[in-house]
Specification:
Layout (H helix, E strand, L loop, with lengths): L8 E2 L32 H4 L12 H12 L6 E4 L6 H13 L3 H4 E5 L6 H13 L4 E2 L2 E3 L1 E6 L6 H13 L4 E7 L7 H4 L3 E4 L5 H15 L5 H11 L3 H14 L5 H8 L4 H13 L2 H15 L3 H12 L6 H19 L4 H22 L2
Parallel strand pairs: 2-7, 2-8, 3-6, 6-7
Antiparallel strand pairs: 1-5, 4-5
Helix pairs in contact: 5-6, 8-9, 8-10, 9-10, 9-11, 10-11, 12-14, 14-15, 15-16
C-alpha cells in the first residue's frame, strides 16, 4: 500500500474531495530527491538544499515554517532579505516535504521579475488557484503558489494578487519572496506572515563551502577559504559561484586566484593604495594608483568600495572618519552613474588629502 503523504487537508466549497488536472503553467519544479551530478550543472543548483534539515542557517525560521506546515497551519508567507540567504531553498524544501512526488501538480513557481504584469495574475495564477487540488488519502490538499522576486511585480499586479489571495485562501497558500520588502504593497504584507533572512554568518558559509569542497575534491588552502568567505558577504550563491569559477580557471584555489578570477583588488593592494592616499602627494598617489589599476585590471569602483572598508581599521577621530566615508560614498555613487574615472580618482585623493589635514590638526 502506498504511503500517504502528510499534507494540509482542505475541502472544496461543496465538501467534495476532487483531483485536479495536472498544472501545465508556470515553471516546472525539480522533484528529484538528489541534485543531478553532472559537470555542467551549476553548483548553486547541484548543492541546493533538498530538505529542511539541509538548510543550515536561519534554523529558527526554518523550524517555525516546518512546524506550521506539519501542523496544517501554514499561513501565506513573505520571505525577504538579501540574495543567497536561503529564502527560495527553504520554501522549495518545505514543498518537497509536503507534496513528495506530487510536487509538479501542487506547486506553481513563477519568477516575478519575468512574469510581473497583471495578466500573469489574472491568467496563470488565477487559473492555477481556481482548479481543484490533487487528492491525498481521500482528501484534497492546499496548493502552493511561489512568487520569487515578488518586489519586481507592478503595483497593479500586486493589487490584483491581493484579490486572488482573498478569493482562494481556502485552497491555496501563497509564498512571496523578495529582496526589498518596501516594494511590496502594505495590503499584501498584511496578509502574509513575514520572515526576514539576514546575510549568512561566516561560519555557515564556511561550513557549506567545506561540504562542497570535500564533495568535489578541491584543493583550497586556508587563505583561499578566507577569501571566498570575505567576498561572499553572507551570500551563499555568490560564494559557490566564485568557488566554481575559480576552480574552472585554477587548479589550486588560493587567495590570489580567487581575487584574480573575481576582479577584486587583493587586501595587500588595498593596504598599499591606502598608504599612498594617506602619505603621498597628490600627483604621486594618482600616478601609482592609475598604474596599479591598469596593470591588474581593477575597477575604480571596487577600489573605492574596499578602501571604504579599510578606513574602519584606521585609527582616526570619529568626525574625520564619518566625513571621509561620506566623501567616498559620493564618489562610489558618481562612478555608478558612469562618471569619468580620472576625475573620480582625483576626488578620492582630494578626500584623503582633506582627511590627512584634519588628522594633522588633531595631532593624530
Amino acid at each position: 500500500m502506498a504511503k500517504v503523504i502528510d499534507v494540509m487537508d482542505i475541502d472544496d466549497d461543496n465538501g467534495n474531495f476532487n483531483s485536479a488536472k495536472p498544472n501545465l503553467k508556470g515553471k516546472n519544479v525539480v522533484v528529484s530527491a538528489a541534485p543531478p551530478d553532472t559537470r555542467a550543472t551549476p553548483w548553486v543548483e547541484k548543492y541546493r538544499p533538498q530538505s529542511l534539515d539541509d538548510v543550515a542557517a536561519h534554523r529558527d525560521i526554518v523550524e517555525t515554517i516546518d512546524r506550521l506546515a506539519s501542523g496544517n497551519r501554514l499561513p501565506h508567507l513573505l520571505l525577504y532579505g538579501p540574495p543567497g540567504t536561503g529564502k527560495t531553498s527553504t520554501v522549495l524544501a518545505m514543498a518537497r516535504k509536503l507534496y513528495g512526488n506530487k510536487l509538479q501538480n501542487m506547486v506553481l513557481e513563477l519568477n516575478a521579475s519575468d512574469d510581473r504584469g497583471i495578466d500573469v495574475v489574472r491568467q496563470q495564477i488565477q487559473d492555477f488557484a481556481s482548479t481543484q487540488s490533487i487528492s491525498f488519502g481521500g482528501k484534497s490538499a492546499v496548493k502552493l503558489v511561489l512568487l520569487d522576486e515578488a518586489d519586481a511585480m507592478t503595483k497593479d499586479a500586486q493589487f490584483a494578487l491581493r484579490r486572488v489571495i482573498e478569493k482562494y485562501t481556502k485552497s491555496n497558500r501563497f509564498a512571496l519572496i523578495c529582496n526589498n520588502v518596501n516594494k511590496i504593497i502594505p495590503a499584501l504584507q498584511s496578509r502574509c506572515t513575514r520572515f526576514r533572512f539576514a546575510p549568512l554568518d561566516a561560519v555557515h558559509v564556511r561550513d557549506r563551502l567545506r561540504h562542497v569542497i570535500e564533495s568535489e575534491g578541491l584543493d583550497v588552502p586556508e587563505n583561499g577559504m578566507k577569501a571566498l568567505v570575505q567576498l561572499s558577504n553572507g551570500d551563499m550563491r555568490k560564494a559557490l559561484n566564485i568557488l566554481q569559477s575559480t576552480h574552472m580557471a585554477c587548479q589550486q584555489i588560493t587567495e590570489e586566484a580567487v581575487y584574480l578570477c573575481t576582479g577584486n583588488p587583493l587586501p595587500k593592494d588595498i593596504e598599499q593604495i591606502s598608504h599612498w592616499l594617506l602619505n603621498e602627494p597628490f600627483t604621486t598617489s594618482s600616478q601609482r594608483i592609475s598604474e596599479m589599476k591598469t596593470r591588474k585590471g581593477l575597477a575604480l569602483v571596487d577600489i573605492v568600495r574596499e578602501v571604504t572598508m579599510f578606513v574602519f581599521k584606521i585609527k582616526m577621530p570619529p568626525a574625520v572618519r564619518i566625513q571621509l566615508i561620506n566623501d567616498m560614498a559620493d564618489i562610489e555613487y558618481r562612478l555608478s552613474m558612469a562618471c569619468n574615472d580620472k576625475l573620480q580618482l582625483g576626488s578620492l585623493i582630494a578626500a584623503f588629502t582633506r582627511a590627512r589635514g584634519s588628522l594633522v590638526a588633531a595631532g593624530t
